[in-house]
Amino acid sequence: MKALLLLPFALSLIATRAIAGDVATEPILTLDGARSLAESALNYAHAHGAPGAAIAVVDAGGIPLYVERIDGTFRNAANISLGKARTAVLFGKPTRVFEDLVNKGRYTMLALPDIAPFTPLMGGVPIEIDGQVAGAIGVSGAASAAQDDEIATAAAAEFMKKQNQLSTEVTVVPRATVDAGFAKDTTLLRGQGFRVEASHRTGQGQAEVHMHDTDIFYVLKGRAHLVVGGTVIEPQPLSEGEVRGSRIEGGEQRVIADGDVVVIPRGVPHWFTHVDTPFRYYVVKSSTP
Questions:
Q1: Domains located in the chain, CATH noted
Q2: What digits encode the pLDDT tens for the residues 43-91?
Q3: Which of 33, 120, 151, 245 is the most buried (most CB within 10 A)?
Q4: pTM of the entire structure?
């Protein structure tokens, strides 16, 4: 299989805290979520005898997150699947709706301007979380247009079902898993609107800004100097929701140690400038309002 990871680029960074009434927080499809969607689609395609398939996943703005094409699938299938995903997310409807409209004679839909690209072919399905569109999946290159749509619909349904299950299940992470997680910085648990990570540091890190996540640190062991606020220098986008840089200018330095809880709201720069090892801490990342 051939996989292509596509990460959008941040155009600007404003290192100030947003006023609650001026912005809205919505569910966001992550790169991990995009991979999970694509995996579900590929598994379904293989299990149902699809001769090929290209799968594209986009975020809520239609920006590509992940594209994968089964070997032997015609090359342009990747572009078509991307067009289907973008059309589904920008209109908030499965693309089968638009193919049906065109087939019934509404040809003016084919002349819609400034849609990049508008693809009224079945096989694109939006991903809805809590009633809001968080992204979309597009499939092309299966045995038929109907099978494209079947694969995309099945993958989207499985993904949304898992998200709903995560919101009601009680989960216990065994100590052995937690201990192993601290050795390699692991996500211990992922749920709807949050994830829990086991983290450790051995020295100075990069300056960071998380545009969608509020970070909640609980320090288990050690002591560190943490700069919060200020401006990130030499910012580079790590992903659609995270920017990193070489350092922070300005800001306020805090000393944190075992037993401390630190809450860093989304959009606030932070930077570990000094760490006394070993330094271990839990991180809860919340993307809810």
A1: 2-166 (3.30.450.150), 175-286 (2.60.120.10)
A2: 999 999 999 999 999 998 899 999 999 999 998 999 999 999 999 998 8
A3: 151
A4: 0.55
